[in-house]
Backbone:
């Protein structure tokens, strides 16, 4: 917390400038999410599917609970989503050789192609509405800021 007393920082209300920045972040974030989602829906794609496929694609085999943790969703929700992705042939479930009670998931060849289609669209949309709207320094600062926010959340979770 930049050397500040954590208790004081938690109790202190936002200044009017901080509140305005927060409202702009929330409004801009939701507007961006809506635009990205609309772009995906118009093409019959799903932003949620992209997130699940990205995470599964990062490792050859993962537990559903690991995928759920990575996408910040409940295991039951992710399990249903993976079931649907299995039904369309993008993901397959495998039995764990270490423990038969657990099911692993991985991308199929079709799933890799679906992921590539999703990523191309994501990249076009993010370039148009985020990267091109900011300077290179602003975009780098945005990434850095959210990296710090994620680290603060992880530290708070570890301290619970």
Residues:
């Amino acid at each position: 917390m930049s050397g500040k007393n954590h208790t004081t920082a938690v109790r202190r209300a936002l200044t009017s400038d901080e509140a305005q920045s927060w409202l702009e972040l929330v409004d801009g974030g939701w507007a961006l999410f809506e635009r990205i989602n609309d772009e995906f829906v118009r093409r019959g794609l799903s932003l949620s599917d992209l997130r699940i496929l990205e995470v599964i694609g990062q490792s050859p085999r993962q537990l559903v609970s690991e995928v759920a943790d990575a996408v910040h969703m409940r295991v039951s929700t992710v399990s249903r989503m993976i079931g649907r992705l299995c039904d369309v042939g993008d993901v397959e479930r495998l039995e764990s050789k270490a423990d038969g009670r657990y099911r692993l998931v991985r991308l199929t060849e079709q799933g890799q192609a679906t992921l590539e289609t999703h990523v191309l669209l994501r990249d076009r949309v993010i370039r148009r509405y985020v990267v091109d709207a900011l300077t290179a320094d602003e975009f780098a600062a945005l990434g850095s800021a959210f990296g710090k926010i994620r680290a603060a959340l992880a530290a708070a979770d570890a301290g619970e």
The chain has seven helices and three strands. The helical segments are 6-11, 16-42, 47-57, 64-71, 75-87, 109-129, 136-159. Strands lie at 62-63, 91-95, 103-107.
